[in-house]
Design a protein that fits this description.
4% of the residues lie in helices and 57% in strands. By secondary structure, the chain is mainly β.
């Protein structure tokens, strides 16, 4: 029987820089590079040290930007690609941006997004329960591994926050690659309430396509912070 143990986690490098494209515009280049190595031992003589990418974080780079078009409105976009920090190869060579690729509009009405994007439920839970987005062994997010993380052809609406209450809605439409039907392959609704240290969210999601999951699921999560500590 082989046993695996981590000898060193390697180096994690992240960067983010914002440069003004125009007087009312910003574009941010960001990324995370996580490389490491592990020591693999066995009862025989085949022990070895191996290089591993993404030991703690998902190695990725991305661009996000916003342009003020007047009247309190902003046009936003975000593109994000995952790749191997050991070889430089894209996680999925068939996709130029396999994690995020959306454009949207925000203002006093809230925000709408179109394209490949995270599900609202995942965004709410991950930000509230694992602010470092590490998804480590001890992360509370491991209790929600069944969640759909992101979907193609997404259309989402994020409401403004009223007295601590906000809601997020998303549908993912089918296209020619995933068959016929009523046109909706996935939908997700999340309601969140934040009041001081209290953060409570409830959501429902349903996927009708094999690529995004099947059936429906409910999620209820909450947390409370007291000083520098948080309880979930």
């Amino acid at each position: 029987m082989k046993r695996f143990s981590t000898l060193a986690s390697g180096a994690v490098l992240s960067c983010a820089c914002a440069t003004p494209a125009f007087a009312q515009s910003t574009v941010t280049l960001y990324g995370v590079l996580d490389n490491g190595f592990v020591y693999q031992s066995s009862s025989g003589s085949n022990s070895a040290i191996r290089a591993v990418p993404g030991g703690l974080f998902a190695t990725r780079y991305g661009f996000k930007g916003s342009e003020d078009i007047g009247g309190g409105l902003h046009v936003n976009f975000q593109l994000e690609q995952a790749f191997s920090g050991q070889t430089g190869a894209a996680t999925n060579p068939a996709e130029a941006f396999n994690r995020l690729a959306y454009v949207g509009l925000s203002g006093g009405f809230g925000e709408v997004r179109f394209g490949l994007q995270n599900s609202p439920q995942y965004d709410v839970l991950q930000a509230a329960m694992d602010p470092s987005w590490v998804k480590s062994i001890a992360s509370p997010m491991n209790n929600f591994n069944g969640l759909i993380i992101r979907a193609n052809n997404g259309i989402s609406y994020y409401t403004p926050t009223y007295d601590g209450l906000n809601a997020k809605f998303m549908v993912a439409l089918r296209d020619s690659s995933n068959g016929s039907g009523n046109g909706i392959g996935f939908y997700n609704v999340v309601v969140q309430y934040i009041n001081g240290p209290l953060n409570v969210a409830a959501g429902y999601e349903r996927g009708d396509e094999p690529s995004v999951g099947a059936g429906g699921s409910y999620t209820l999560a909450g947390g409370a912070a007291a000083g520098p500590q948080a309880r979930y």
